[in-house]
Structure formats: structure tokens, C-alpha cells
Amino acid sequence: MRSAVLASSLLFLAFAGCTAEESDPEPVCEGVATSCSTYEGEFACGAQAGCYPTGGECSGVSTSCSSFFSPVECGGQPGCDWSSVTNSCGGFADSCYTQDFDFTCEGIEGCYWEPFQCTGVAESCAQQQDGIACAYQDGCNWVE
Q1: Is 117:132 a contact under the CB 8 Å cutoff?
Q2: How many helices (H) and strands (E) does the chain have?
Q3: pLDDT for 39-77, tens place per residue?
Q4: In whole angstroms, how far apart are CA 69 and each of 49, 86, 87?
Q5: Of 76, 84, 113, 135, which alpha carbon lies 20 to 30 A from 22's?
Q6: What's the CA gap between 117 and 85, in Å, rounded?
Q7: DSSP secondary-structure letter at 106?
Q8: In terms of Cα–Cα distance, which of 63, 109, 69 is closest to 86?
Q9: How much is the pTM?
Q10: What CA–CA distance (Å, rounded) separates 73 from 79?
Q11: What does the pLDDT look like over 87-125, one tens digit per residue?
Q12: Within 13 A of 37's CA, how many CA atoms are on the CB side?
């Protein structure tokens, strides 16, 4: 009987300090979030929390048609037409901001193409508050 009491006392002491919280750690988002600068696509960049897609657009101000003084120069500016009657260039030069491609943008005098860049600072894995946010943050893993 004495050994049974001793065994139960030892068993009690072994588990007296344990709680459910100590044996089950809180889930956490771990890892190193992928840097914004590594993204080459607008969608992937925008999906990474803290990253923002910029560029990939035509900027500038197209040179007005009245700035061209020869049929060749005038005809080279999209939206402009040379009038042999008035011996002048007229019309409305295409806007830079309506161009969706680098080759159409760069074909307009006064316009230039801004290449795509993914800017910002990716939120750290520790900043992700739940498993879903963690799963969407490249480089992070939800550990339960």
C-alpha cells in the first residue's frame, strides 16, 4: 500500500505543473516573406501584402501636331496629318496615357514607357494574423 501511495504522489508531482496551454503552443506564421523586388508580374506583386505594382505604363506628354513643320515629321506622329493646302500639320496627337504597349508608346514623340516594378516592403510573416493571411504571403508557413 505504501508503494501505491508513493507512486501516485510521484505521478501527481510529475503532472502538477503541466497545463493544456503548455503542451499545445499557439499557431504562428513563420518564415521570411518574399521581397517585393523579386516579383515580375503585377498580379503576384499585388497579392503580396505590403507590395505595390508601379510602372508598366506610358507616361509623358505627346508633342502637339502644330510643333511639326514637315510632312515627314507630321506623318510620324500618330494622330497628326499634313495639310498640303495650309502647308501645316494639324490634328490631335495620340495621348500617351491611352497606350497599352511599350512599342505604341515609344512610337509617339513626347511619350516614354515606364517599366513595371514591384515596390514596397513585404509584411513580415509574424504580421500575418491567421492561417489564410499567412498562406497568401509568399515565403511564410502557418505552424500549428
Answers
A1: no
A2: 6, 8
A3: 998 899 999 999 999 988 999 999 999 999 999 999 999
A4: 51, 11, 8
A5: 135
A6: 47
A7: T
A8: 69
A9: 0.56
A10: 12
A11: 999 999 999 999 999 999 999 999 999 999 999 999 999
A12: 0
